Amino acid sequence: QVQLVESGGGVVQAGDSLRLSCAASGLTFRMHTVAWFRQAPGKEREFVARILPYSEDTRYADSVKGRFTISRDNAKNTLYLQMNSLKPEDTATYYCAARPNFRSEYDCWGQGTQVTVSS
Predict the structure, then answer these.
(1) What would the 3-class secondary structure string for 89-117 be?
(2) How many CB atoms are closer than 10 A to CB 58?
(3) Around Cβ 10, how many Cβ atoms within 10 Å?
């Protein structure tokens, strides 16, 4: 059974940092593209960042570029999101997602972890 479990969310103040983790099981993690998405109340889910398998190739949404860093540890089957200089507009539920590298859509999702940034 494929499972993605996020952790590391919390309540912080603007300017603070948080690191999210996503532990994967039931899939060949190193062969999957993995990503972070987020959804704020009343808004659609949006892409945050992704990282390809076997490489350091990353992509970020413009809104987080320069503040967030996505990384992966294939030996630990874990995805990370280092979030620095957090802003109130970063408040959302953050989800990790995975897809086999040959597919264009993400087909495995975690349950989400809440990040709240107060001003």
Answers:
(1) HHCEEEEEEEEECCCCCCCEECCCEEEEE
(2) 15
(3) 13
Q: What distance in Å separates the CA atoms of residue 55 and residue 65, rounded to the nearest whole number?
A: 19
* DSSP character at residue 30: G
Q: Are 55 and 44 in contact (CB under 8 A)?
A: no
The answer to whether 68 touches 49, Cβ cutoff 8 Å, is yes
Measured in degrees and rounded to the nearest 5, phi and psi for residue 85 equal: 50, 50
Q: Which of 28, 19, 37, 8 is nearest to 77 (CA)?
A: 28
What's phi and psi for 88, nearest 5 deg?
-55, -35
pLDDT tens digits in sequence order for the chain, 119 residues long: 899 999 999 999 999 999 999 999 999 999 999 999 999 999 999 999 999 987 779 999 999 999 999 999 999 999 999 999 999 999 999 999 999 988 889 999 999 999 999 99
